[in-house]
Amino acid sequence: MFKNFLKKLIRKCLRRFLPEILPECLPNALPNAMHYLPEGWHNGYNVYSHVFVDNKKLVHIGKGSFLNHNTGLYVGSGDAQITIGENVFIANDCVITTCSHEIGTSEKRAGKCTYNPVVIENGVWIGANSTILPGVTIRKGTIIAAGAVVTHDCLPDSIYAGVPAKKIRDLND
Ligand SMILES: CC(C)(COP(=O)(O)OP(=O)(O)OC[C@H]1O[C@@H](n2cnc3c(N)ncnc32)[C@H](O)[C@@H]1OP(=O)(O)O)[C@@H](O)C(=O)NCCC(=O)NCCS
């Protein structure tokens, strides 16, 4: 009985801490890079499996927020931050990125890297498979419909949908 309890405890600890520890043990790993956020509640926000953050020092997540399976938060090797407010719900398979490239020559179109911060204010809901591009601010209480690509700032308490995302209606509650 005690053995089983011990086994379960060890398994739980490994599941909780291994994703954080392992990348930092790898040779040549960048500091704080390549993290799958551990599942569960952390500092008041909730994470499902395979939520990827490439540098957790530049990502801030507020209380009551929730990130679903396979969502990725990318800041590359820049210093632009991703700021997620409180009670933000980000569905599965979303990409939020501060990184892009200048357009290069035809030999290499992905030119010099550029970085611009992303801000997602309190209460926002981002639908599944959406992409939030560098420099975007999504104001409070707004919904991003599933599959949208957000290229510009979004007004508060509105629904945006499509590629590129356009406002489709106001939300008055
Ligand atoms: C954005 C959303 C909440 C809209 O809800 P709603 O206001 O009830 O919208 P409706 O279903 O009444 O549709 C309103 C219009 O928006 C369009 N629309 C709805 N969702 C859309 C989407 N994801 N992309 C593009 N257009 C969309 C509808 O086709 C409709 O257009 P029409 O008036 O020309 O027919 C919902 O469609 C959505 O995308 N939810 C996200 C679901 C999701 O990601 N789930 C994962 C777990 S959270």
How far apart the termini lie comes to: 53 Å
Number of helices: 1
Strand content: 35-45%
Shape: globular
Helix content: 10-25%
Tell me the series of helices and strands, N- to C-terminal. Answer: HEEEEEEEEEEEEEEEEEEEE
Strand order of the largest sheet: 2-3-6-9-14-17-19-20
* The first-level CATH class name: Mainly Beta
What is the number of domains? Answer: 1
CATH architecture: 3 Solenoid
Blueprint (SSEs and pairs):
Layout lengths: L1 H24 L7 E5 L2 E3 L2 E3 L3 E5 L3 E3 L4 E2 L4 E3 L7 E3 L4 E2 L4 E3 L1 E5 L6 E6 L2 E3 L4 E2 L4 E2 L4 E2 L4 E2 L4 E2 L7 E4 L4 E5 L3
Parallel strand pairs: 3-6, 4-7, 5-8, 6-9, 7-10, 8-13, 9-14, 10-15, 13-16, 14-17, 15-18, 17-19
Antiparallel strand pairs: 1-4, 2-3, 11-12, 19-20
The protein binds coenzyme A.
Structure description:
- With 173 residues, the protein is mainly beta.
- It has one domain: UDP N-Acetylglucosamine Acyltransferase, domain 1 (3 Solenoid), CATH 2.160.10.10.
- Helices cover 14% and strands 38% of the residues.
- It has 1 helix and 20 strands.
- An 8-stranded mixed beta sheet has the order 2-3-6-9-14-17-19-20, with no helix packed on it. A 6-stranded mixed beta sheet has the order 1-4-7-10-15-18.
- Coenzyme A (COA) binds at residues 91, 127-128, 143, 145-147, 159, 161-162, 168.
